[in-house]
Fold each of these.
Amino acid sequence: DTPLNDRYFDSLPDPVLARAELEATYPGGRMAHPVEMATAVAFLVSEDASFISGTSMVVDAGLTVNPY
C-alpha cells in the first residue's frame, strides 16, 4: 500500500469502495506495507538465508491461495 495506490484509488468514482473490494480479496484484509516487502528482501540477502537457492518466496498474505 503506497502513495501510488492512493492516486489510483482516488482516480476512481468511489475510492473507498474500490479499496475495500480489493482489500477483501486478501485473506489478511489489507494490502502489504512497503516495509513488509523490504523485510522479506532483507531476509533473503542475509546470512540467515545463505543456504536458500533456486526457489520463489511469495510474499502476498495468502492472496495466491485465496479461493475467491
Amino acid sequence: PSEVESFITLPQKEEHWADPDIGKIHRFDDAEIIERWPTHYPIPTYFDIDYNKHVNNVVYVRWMVSAMDESFLEGYEPAVVDVQWMHQTFRNDKVQVETGVVSRTDTEAELVHSIRKDDGTILFEANTKWRKKPQ
C-alpha cells in the first residue's frame, strides 16, 4: 500500500469523496427482484488467482459484469457500484453469479448481484446503479 500511495494523491481526512453513511448493502436474497437474469457459471482460471492462491477481488467484479445482459451494457453505464466481499474462493471452486433488476426506468436502473459457491456460501454481493448512456 505505501508504494501505491507514493503514486497517487489521497484526499485529506476532512474531504470525503463518498457519503460515509451509505447504509448497508441490500442482500440479493432479500431484494424485491422484478426481473431475474440467467445464472452465470464462471470458471476460475489461473489468471484469476493472486499471490495468496485465492481469487483476486477484482475478478468478482468482472464476473458480475460478465453475467449481465449485453444489450443492457450497451445501453447503460455504471453510476454507483457498492460491493461487499464476504468469503474467499479458490481456483477449483464452482461458483455462480446471480443478477436481479430491482428497479428500471427509461433513464436508470438498480440491480442486485450475488456470487456464491455451489454449496450456497455467499462470496460476494453488490448493489449497482446504472444510467442510460447519452446518445
